[in-house]
Specification:
By secondary structure, the protein is α/β, with parallel strands linked by helices. It folds into 3 domains: 75 residues, Outer Surface Protein A, domain 3 (Alpha-Beta Complex); 84 residues, no CATH class; 194 residues, no CATH class. The chain is built from 18 helices and 15 strands. Strand 3 and strand 4 form a beta hairpin. The longest helix has 25 residues. It starts with a strand and ends in a 9-residue tail after the last helix.
């Protein structure tokens, strides 16, 4: 019978009311509950499943669940933990790279046969959001020192320009919003008063960065887009080249633009680490699956999910020694969801979730935030439309213009690059699938409300705005996902 053993380099200590496992090899401390701490003590010298059952008094199913959790955290002796320790060297090198001058890092531009593009067209989309920041201390000092001539609403040092919020356990400063949910520095022409009076460089870094999103990896800084921006849509078929924006991007990075650092080592699924060389090879394989003919985002996404599933299965076989620790992550629910979107959610939970979204929308409406209110109403409509089967042909009754279809294809092209940059694929593909299906369903619902069975660019533009502005809500909806069979 298989024996399970804690990694020999781990040290279990009591710290007040909690147990900690000090992990010098992976430079971390893991907090354990009482049951896992009891299990860890029993695993120090190695134990069989029968011995562990006797020690912990757990049922076999409960014990295996705890063991799988410890294995995913690389706490058990075995191949996957050994590989994770080896890959720690890649992480140390990466941390040193991140401390180097941002101006020298390679830039990884959006990929694909026809990648999404962007050019600012001055619509003011970036000036209306649930939070306009975070601002750096330099942003606050610079904006506070400005004087305004055209706008009589502000004077130098006017604190009305800023608002405070809490997230991630920390306080953050953002540009203040008015009762309509728009930035206080937005003028009557919907353009930025700071930009008008003092030029582009006077604006906060977060404002200049929008809608560019930066993710730092050992390959450099990956650039993707927040597809809620009207400038993305209007530049979609232009001749703009990403390489022409290198100076702008490097300037933003040098000044401290937000660049989320990739979590290394990369994981195909929790507890399945892979070296960076494998990761980049897989990325290229996924983009090589993009259809060469008609725009078929679901065809591409289905092929991507199948390819990743094969990689997960093989990696699991390579790293697993104890069969009792379970099967690899199963992405079958995602491919099934592409054919039958309602299957992605536990339908009994959807109605209460939509009721909560609409309740929040009405509250925001009463507080004077119409754009945020409409976004939540639309988001609830998107979820209900998906469950009602509103979709493009061949699954549904709607057709789409080429530009509308291109918008949906961009969700896959843009977010696939983003998810690869972040470093864990199974969770990322689940978010990508939900985002694509919600955008498609909402676009169909908007067309139907206008008496059309053809989805136009105006529908997908609004749908993209809703799903990308609703990322926190989309993440929350993951709890409604059907359990894996």
């Amino acid at each position: 019978m298989s024996r399970y053993q804690l990694r020999s380099s781990l040290e279990l200590v009591r710290d007040g009311a909690q147990w900690l496992l000090h992990d010098a090899e992976l430079a971390r401390a893991v907090r354990l509950g009482d049951t896992d701490a009891l299990l860890a003590r029993a695993l120090v010298g190695g134990a069989t499943l029968t011995q562990l059952l006797k020690t912990t008094k757990l049922s076999e199913g409960e014990l295996l669940q705890h063991l799988r959790g410890l294995a995913r955290l690389y706490l058990l002796q075995g191949r996957r933990s050994a590989q994770r320790v080896v890959l720690q060297a890649e992480k140390r090198v990466f941390v040193k790279l991140c401390e180097a001058d941002a101006g020298s890092e390679p830039l990884q531009w959006p990929m694909g046969r026809n990648p999404p593009q962007h050019q600012c067209v001055g619509t003011g989309t970036c000036c209306s959001a649930s939070f306009l920041g975070p601002l750096t201390s330099g942003d606050v000092r610079r904006v506070s020192a400005l004087s305004f001539g055209r706008s009589k609403r502000f004077a130098a040092g006017d604190e009305a320009l800023f608002e405070q919020t809490q997230f991630g356990g920390r306080g953050h400063t953002g540009m203040a919003r008015n009762d309509a949910g728009q930035c206080q520095a937005q003028g009557p022409d919907m353009l930025c008063e700071i930009h008008y009076e003092h030029g582009l460089d006077a604006k906060p870094i977060a404002c200049r960065q929008f809608p560019l999103r930066f993710y730092r990896s050992p390959r450099g800084v990956h650039v993707s887009l927040l597809l809620a921006c009207d400038g993305y849509d209007r530049a979609r078929n232009s001749s703009i080249l990403w390489d022409n924006r290198e100076q702008e991007v490097r300037k933003l990075l040098t000044e401290g633009a937000t660049a989320v650092r990739m979590a290394l080592p990369c994981e195909l699924s929790a507890g399945l680490p892979v070296p960076a060389a494998f990761w980049w090879g897989l990325r290229d394989e996924l983009f090589a699956l993009e259809p060469t003919g008609a725009l078929e985002p679901q065809t591409w996404l289905r092929a991507v999910i199948g390819h990743v599933q094969k990689a997960i299965t093989q990696r699991h076989l390579d790293l697993t020694e104890n069969a009792e620790l379970g099967a690899p992550a199963d992405l079958a629910a995602l491919t099934a969801g592409l054919a039958a979107p309602a299957e992605l959610y536990a339908q009994a939970e959807v109605a209460p979730a939509c009721a909560q979204l609409r309740a929040r929308a009405r509250t925001l409406q009463a507080q004077g935030f119409p754009s945020e209110s409409q976004r939540l109403f639309d988001f609830a409509l998107a979820l209900e439309a998906q469950l009602a089967g509103k979709a493009l042909q061949p699954r549904g009754a709607f057709v789409a213009t080429e530009q509308a279809q291109l918008h949906l294809n961009d969700i896959v092209a843009n977010d696939l690059q983003l998810q690869v940059a972040l470093g864990q694929l199974d969770a990322g593909l689940a978010n990508l699938t939900r985002r694509l299906l919600l955008a498609e369903a909402l676009a169909c619902a908007l067309a139907q409300a206008d008496g059309r069975d053809t989805v136009q660019a105006i529908d997908t533009t609004r749908a993209l705005h809703v799903v990308y502005r609703s990322e926190p809500d989309l993440t929350a909806l993951a709890v409604l996902q059907r359990p894996r069979r």
